Amino acid sequence: MKHDSKERYGSVSKTFHWLMAALIGWQLLKFGDRIAEGEHWVGETLVPWHVSIGTLLLVMIVLRLVWVMTQRHQRPAQDPATARLVKAGHGLLFAGMLLMPLTGIMVMLGGGYGLTAFGLEIFAKGDEIAWAATIGSLHSPLAWALTVLIIGHIGMALTHHFVHRDDTLKRML
Ligand code: HEM
Ligand code: HEM
């Protein structure tokens, strides 16, 4: 089923969720630049895709949010006791997925580096832009905050599956 239902997420939501989870995992490897200044296999092979994949993630999150809006009346039901907390948690994950690429792009424009994704020039190199660099300085703290959120999110998914033994994880698989 393409669409979500009260029982489970549909194929479109699942594809967005797992493809983006994998690409975000890839993006977080950028923390590896803190080890030996990125002079290792991960830093030299996977991390150079950071700007291209980040830009792709911006397109994906916009499409995903539009999809979520169309599905909002037919998504899996949450336990009423924790529904608000779950909504807030997922909301923060969505906010993180939107703010990471936006602030990342601000790092590039603020530094005057321009923006090129997959070899395609989107913004040419230019002068430094102080206000953009200021917004860009939020990129790293947001990356740490998103990492904590993701760890909590995965922890909750595994708790549902192995401790409560309910269908929360299965409906996203
Ligand atoms: C979901 C998307 C993204 C995630 C999860 C992400 C994650 C990260 C992480 C974890 C770091 C390392 C921060 C640190 O060591 O403190 C980083 C740094 C960086 N990212 Fe991203 N990023 C994303 C998108 C982007 C985009 C779209 C761009 C540019 C267009 C970008 C440009 C940069 C740059 C230039 C740095 C190094 C400068 C800095 O640390 O402020 N990122 N990012
Ligand atoms: C191993 C990694 C992950 C696991 C096991 C996992 C598991 C799940 C599960 C079971 C749900 C359904 C929860 C429910 O119905 O209440 C869910 C939903 C969700 N997950 Fe994850 N997740 C993972 C990674 C991520 C990552 C990296 C992000 C984004 C940064 C993310 C963002 C979301 C969001 C926003 C939802 C709400 C439903 C939607 O609209 O897609 N997840 N996840």
TrEMBL record:
Keyword annotations of the record: Cell membrane, Electron transport, Heme, Iron, Membrane, Metal-binding, Transmembrane, Transmembrane helix, Transport
Topology of this chain in the membrane: Multi-pass membrane protein
Cofactor(s) recorded in Swiss-Prot or TrEMBL: heme b
Domain of life: Bacteria
Gene3D superfamilies: Transmembrane di-heme cytochromes, Chain C
Chain ranges passing through the membrane: 12-29, 49-70, 91-113, 142-163
Compartmental location: Cell membrane
Main localization, broad class: membrane
Domain Cytochrome b561 bacterial/Ni-hydrogenase residues, every copy: 8-173
Matching InterPro entries: Cyt_b561_bac/Ni-Hgenase (IPR011577), Cytochrome_b561_oxidase (IPR052168), Di-haem_cyt_TM (IPR016174)
PANTHER family assigned: CYTOCHROME B561, CYTOCHROME B561 HOMOLOG 2
Family statement drawn from the similarity comment of this UniProt entry: Belongs to the cytochrome b561 family.
Protein name, as recorded: Cytochrome b
